């Protein structure tokens, strides 16, 4: 799939609230009349264009989830960078570049998916298997983009068909419950339409297992306690439904690898622990990954002899997280974290603990520049599926304490640490924190379990040695503000999320 899936199509660039130059491009509704959607090949290229909207997903999850959480202490010394107000819980985030990117990129992906869904038909794609696959992929990806938007912004406009920029100006934000309705419907359809696996270059596309696993995560999130009236949790108690879906994935062709590091090996991609990941290809083709550069920062990359400029500041792994590891026995610690390095610019040792899970000092993973790393990024791993099953049971779904303990201890045994007994939800969250560092899950885990305010308000006063962060957070900080440029498009169309300036 690396050869096929990440193909950027020029006419899929237009966003819902595009700038004037973008609005002067060919209208989206005119694509079919231009002859693009006349063959199966055209639809395949269009679907690849939808996948392309996932390109910046890793950086977004890191900055808006890991950096926001107790995993990363993102206070730097190189002047205020865009990630610092996110880390510090600033109230002025409406103008932050990460808000803009999260909104625009996800809605661009939704528009691309809608373009496929509005044009596909039996006449244009007579092969029912292929037609189902294209429809299933488009619905899966649309649901994934909407789930991302919902977790970060709460209510957002629900747009399930192509609209003109003028029509978009009349569409307000839908309640979270209605956004969930579309997400769940799309994922249910995708699960029934998609195949269970692919071969050859198509390996890596979304499967029915992928749709079921993400739907289980959706149910888990929707079931969480309501801390914010417009947040992603609705206390729907969907834990049994989530468990059923997770068991279906567990019955599929997946397994944890014996070696934690092998899960992230460039030469072992699409292994049995991967249910769905973003496919990247190095080689100067514009389809590589920029995330490793963002993850570790410039000084680290200089220390390992990386030949290209990075120009990014280190975001330190928090000492609270470091201290939670068994640093001697837990194989994840040495693989995920490097406690310091020698800055080649001055020969000085830098005591910056950096996340190196995807930032390996291995030239085999390096491409033509810092935007061209080849390593894939997992959106859903089998290990996550297992731990979500344990979470469902701890939240009241059918199962026993023995089932929970076995799952957690299998994960611990794989990395060489002692078993637990009578594991609690807090134990589970700590295991997830160490397992998924750098994979963008921590903030979402804390929100959906209702632990976010207690955990963060205990962590901030201890970790914030530079005295830069808000002293305590409240429910308003669970979601982010609507980007200011969206607020400015049409006065009164949206109201800003509570607590933001």
Automatic annotation (TrEMBL):
Where is the major localization of this protein?
Answer: membrane
The chain positions of domain SusD-like N-terminal read 92-220
Family matches, as PROSITE patterns: PROKAR_LIPOPROTEIN
Q: Where is the RagB/SusD domain?
A: 374-500
Leader sequence residues: 1-18
Tell me the compartments it is located in.
Answer: Cell outer membrane
Is Membrane tagged as a keyword? yes
- What InterPro entries is this protein classified in? SusD-like_N, SusD_RagB_dom, TPR-like_helical_dom_sf
User: Which Pfam family is one of this chain's hits?
Assistant: SusD_RagB
Belongs to which family?
Belongs to the SusD family.
* Name of this chain's protein: RagB/SusD family nutrient uptake outer membrane protein
Organism (species): Draconibacterium aestuarii
State the organism's lineage. Bacteria, Pseudomonadati, Bacteroidota, Bacteroidia, Marinilabiliales
């Amino acid at each position: 799939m690396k050869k096929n899936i990440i193909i950027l199509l020029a006419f899929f660039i237009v966003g819902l609230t595009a700038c004037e130059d973008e609005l002067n491009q060919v209208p989206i509704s005119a694509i079919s009349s231009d002859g693009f959607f006349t063959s199966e090949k055209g639809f395949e290229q269009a679907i690849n264009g939808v996948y392309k909207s996932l390109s910046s997903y890793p950086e977004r999850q890191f900055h808006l989830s890991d950096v926001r959480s107790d995993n990363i202490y993102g206070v730097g010394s190189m002047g205020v960078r865009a990630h610092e107000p996110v880390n510090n819980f600033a109230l002025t985030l409406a103008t932050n570049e990460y808000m803009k990117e999260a909104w625009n990129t996800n809605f661009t992906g939704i528009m691309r998916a809608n373009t496929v869904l509005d044009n596909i038909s039996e006449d244009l794609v007579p092969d029912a298997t292929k037609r189902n696959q294209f429809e299933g992929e488009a619905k899966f990806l649309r649901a994934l983009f909407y789930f991302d938007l919902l977790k970060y912004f709460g209510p957002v406009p629900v747009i399930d068909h192509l609209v003109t920029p003028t029509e978009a100006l009349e569409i307000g934000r839908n309640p979270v419950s209605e956004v969930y309705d579309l997400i769940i419907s799309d994922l249910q359809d995708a699960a029934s339409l998609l195949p269970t696996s692919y071969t050859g270059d198509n390996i890596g596309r979304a499967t029915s297992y992928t749709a079921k696993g993400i739907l289980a995560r959706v149910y888990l999130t929707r079931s969480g306690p309501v801390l914010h009236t417009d947040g992603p949790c609705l206390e729907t108690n969907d834990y049994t439904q989530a468990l059923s879906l997770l068991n279906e994935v567990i019955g599929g062709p997946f397994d944890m690898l014996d070696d934690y590091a092998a899960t992230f090996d460039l030469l072992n991609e699409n292994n049995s622990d991967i249910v769905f990941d973003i496919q990247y290809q190095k080689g100067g083709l514009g389809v590589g990954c920029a995330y490793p550069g963002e993850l570790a920062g410039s000084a680290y990359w200089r220390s390992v002899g990386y030949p290209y400029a990075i120009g990014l500041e280190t975001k330190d792994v928090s000492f609270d997280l470091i201290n939670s590891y068994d640093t001697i026995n837990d194989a994840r610690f040495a693989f995920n974290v490097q406690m310091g390095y020698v800055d080649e610019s001055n020969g000085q040792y830098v005591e910056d603990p950096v996340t190196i899970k995807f930032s390996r000092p291995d030239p085999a993973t390096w491409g033509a520049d810092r935007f061209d790393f080849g390593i894939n990024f997992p959106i859903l791993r089998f290990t996550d599926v297992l731990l979500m099953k344990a979470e469902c049971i701890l939240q009241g779904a059918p199962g026993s304490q023995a089932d929970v303990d076995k799952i957690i201890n299998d994960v611990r045994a794989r990395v060489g640490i002692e078993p637990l007994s009578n594991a609690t939800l807090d134990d589970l969250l700590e295991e997830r924190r160490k397992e998924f560092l750098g994979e963008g899950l921590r903030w979402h885990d804390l929100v959906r379990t209702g632990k976010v305010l207690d955990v963060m308000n205990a962590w901030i006063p201890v970790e914030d040695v530079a005295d830069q962060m808000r002293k305590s957070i409240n429910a308003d900080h669970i979601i982010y503000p609507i980007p200011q440029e969206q607020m400015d498009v049409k006065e009164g169309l949206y109201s800003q999320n509570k607590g933001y300036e």
